[in-house]
Specification:
By secondary structure, this protein is α/β, with parallel strands linked by helices. It folds into 2 domains: 135 residues, Alpha-Beta Complex (Aspartate Aminotransferase, domain 1); 226 residues, Type I PLP-dependent aspartate aminotransferase-like (Major domain) (Aspartate Aminotransferase, domain 2). The strands form 2 sheets. It has a 7-stranded mixed β-sheet, with helices on both faces. Helix 3 runs antiparallel to helix 10. The longest helix is centred in the C-terminal third of the chain and has 24 residues. InterPro entries: Aminotransferase_I/II_large, AspAT/PAT-like, NHTrfase_class1_PyrdxlP-BS, PyrdxlP-dep_Trfase, PyrdxlP-dep_Trfase_major. It comes from Limimaricola pyoseonensis. GO terms for molecular function: L-aspartate:2-oxoglutarate aminotransferase activity; pyridoxal phosphate binding. Keywords: Aminotransferase, Pyridoxal phosphate, Pyruvate, Transferase.
């Protein structure tokens, strides 16, 4: 018996980008000390007040089937938040609640792409992007961004990818603030991408799960730009903004008819998420912007630590770190690839970071460092990483 081509080719027969993370976890399980700076997992747990709301809802009986598109109250609160933050009038009918941002990406591509259609995304990319595209039967089309451009995409490169594809291209996926690079797309970049989507009849899928983690500049949702609301699907989540990664509360916002169609998809896949979890999500959102700023504050501090340490040496360079909970470091002066550097750092120093190559070819020669351990430990780990890089660079010169 054989499996479907679609499921066996989610990773296109190659690695899925998580090899070093798994190796680090095996080392930890074997009792070896490792400072893990790999995945975007907060070093704090979900706030007890949110957990208490979840407990009250569960004990109060909200444990049966919940409304598939989301409870009316949660959809309304998400719509209120989006209206307030983007200026785009948004009602509950424009919101589908999904089990996390990843499910939102899957639903958005299902809604916009048919079998064999091309789906564009920017390289470097979050590791699941190409697999998500392949999982819906579309063709993954990465567009390389350049380190010298701050990893912002050039429209001419997207145009070239569209022209070179033998078929119909249906969507463009962007992520700002960006994982893994930390880039925040400025208005002019978003306007250019929006114009390109309009010209080529593309859906714009905007992954905005890091919208509360802004260190430099301002977040602008492309849905708020003139003419883009009707062709933009926004993916959001409580995972990063409220330290609720395990609760799996996310959403897709977009035109009412598209949301209704995706509700049909949810009925035939996830059948919604537990009501008591949705109630906890509602409570979390009602805690307001001050609470979200408190969750983001440790990453802002560690971003400043990273900027200071990198500025004190000359081997490793850092991108501006405008947003998100990561620092993307250029280690090409060591003469090593991102994969070789990360593997040697793990083996020799017990520090786990993600190779840039885990996020696409454009990030080769870089490593992504998650700002996800307490400040003192983070400063120690990054200082050791920089000394390690300096030694490798000196050895190369010798």
């Amino acid at each position: 018996m054989t499996l479907s081509h679609r499921i066996t080719h989610i990773t296109a027969g190659g690695p899925d980008g998580w090899d070093l993370f798994r190796k680090a976890r095996r080392m930890v399980a074997a009792g070896r000390p490792v400072i893990e700076l790999t995945i975007g997992e907060h070093d704090i747990r979900t706030d007890p007040e949110i957990l208490q709301a979840m407990d009250r809802a569960a004990r109060g009986g909200h444990t049966g089937y919940a409304a598939v598109p989301g409870t009316p109250e949660l959809r309304a609160e998400i719509a209120r938040r989006l209206t307030e933050r983007t200026g785009v009038p948004t009602g509950p009918e424009n919101v589908l609640v999904v089990p996390g941002g990843q499910a939102g990406l899957f639903a958005a591509h299902h809604a916009t792409c048919d079998e064999g259609d091309g789906a564009l995304y920017i390289d470097p990319y979050y590791a699941t992007y190409p697999g998500t595209v392949r999982a819906v039967g579309a063709v993954a089309l990465p567009v390389a961004a350049r380190a010298e451009d701050g990893f912002l995409p050039r429209t001419e490169d997207i145009e070239a990818e569209i022209a070179g594809f033998d078929g119909r291209v249906r969507s463009l996926l962007i992520n700002t603030p960006n994982n893994p690079t930390g880039a925040v797309y400025p208005r002019e970049a978003l306007e250019a991408l929006g114009a390109l989507c309009a010209e080529h009849g593309l859906w714009l899928i905007s992954d905005e799960v890091y919208d509360t983690q802004l260190w430099d500049g301002a977040h602008l949702s492309p849905r708020a730009l003139p003419g883009l609301a009707d062709r933009t699907l926004v993916v959001g989540s409580l995972s990063k903004s409220h330290a609720m990664t395990g609760s799996r509360v996310g959403w897709v916002a977009g035109p009412e008819d598209v949301i209704a169609a995706m509700e049909n998809l949810a009925t035939h896949t996830t059948y919604g998420i537990p009501g008591f979890v949705q109630d906890a999500g509602l409570h979390a959102l009602q805690l307001g912007a001050e609470f979200e700023a408190k969750v983001a504050a440790p990453f802002r501090r560690r971003r400043e630590i990273a900027a200071r340490l990198v500025a004190e040496q000359e081997v490793v360079r850092a991108l501006p770190m405008q947003g998100a909970m990561y620092a993307m470091l250029d280690i090409r002066a060591t003469g090593l690839s991102g994969e070789a550097f990360a593997d040697a750092l793990l083996e020799q120093e017990g520090i786990a970071v993600m190779p840039g190559e885990s996020f696409g070819r454009a990030a080769a020669g870089h490593v992504r460092v998650a700002l996800t351990v307490e400040d003192d430990r983070f400063e120690e780990a990054l200082s050791r990483l920089l000394r390690f890089a300096a030694a490798k660079s000196a050895g190369r010169a010798a």
